[in-house]
Amino acid sequence: xxxxxSDLDLRYQKFDPIGTGPLGTVFKGRYNAxxxxxxxxxxxxxxxxxxxxxxxxxxxxxxxxxxxxAQVRHPGVVQIVDQNVESTRPxxxxxxxxxxxxxxxxxxxxxxxxxxxALRTFLQLAYGLRAxxxxxxxxxxxxxxxxxxxxxxxxxxxDFGMSRVVEVDATKGMPQVFMGxxxxxxxxxxxMNRAGKEPGPSADVYGLGILLYEMFTGQIPGRRxxxxxxxxxxxxxxLDQLFDKATQDKREQRYPDVDAMxxxxxxxxxxxxxxxRGSLIxxxxxxxx
Length: 289
Description:
The protein contains 9 helices and 8 strands. By secondary structure, it is an alpha+beta fold. The protein folds into 2 domains: 14-95, Phosphorylase Kinase, domain 1 (2-Layer Sandwich), CATH 3.30.200; 101-267, Transferase(Phosphotransferase), domain 1 (Orthogonal Bundle).
């Protein structure tokens, strides 16, 4: 057995941690039967927020969300390989990824990422969301930490529905769990105020619009921020209105779904620089970083 490793249910080896979040820790691991490198996410930290009696409800929600994401087999969605929420330390297993959008944005020194890369990432995330929404699954926790890249530099969405696992439920005595300030700026207003109808796909449209602005500019947009092309002249001005419409506070003024957003995206590129609607651009160049 490799130094620093431990067996997990005999099926997996768990190595050193490679990331932490408000709910748990991510470890690099190996699926023993196939000799396959994978990631293991342990969620033991989540239970510090709940009583022993509430643990069963949290585990029920967690398994439901993991199984829902596992059904979405798409290049823009991180593949869930396995889960064991009955373990002393509940965990789930996903394909091995090679970094996050948060890391790329931080390494850019506040300038964002290059425009062609930003546009390809946007499309990959949009089509990933489109597939998830078609399966009845919304994300509702979009942020750079949940945008991961594979060994070829392709963007994939992770951690669908984790906010639903820990959301307040007065009927079950469930407290509101603080998920950290990092994700709040990407959240549509209806996600923070659940009065009225249930948030749907347009809440993810909002988060994707904020991510697009940040990739172009390296900044989070405020109430009176300049449009993306005013901050970064290399950003296509044809997408300024797309960003504006995607991030409207009122749902009725926003794109209702990803399809409507993509329709305006392709109108901004009439020469077909990014293929046509329905055609996903995938990178096949191995990343060196």
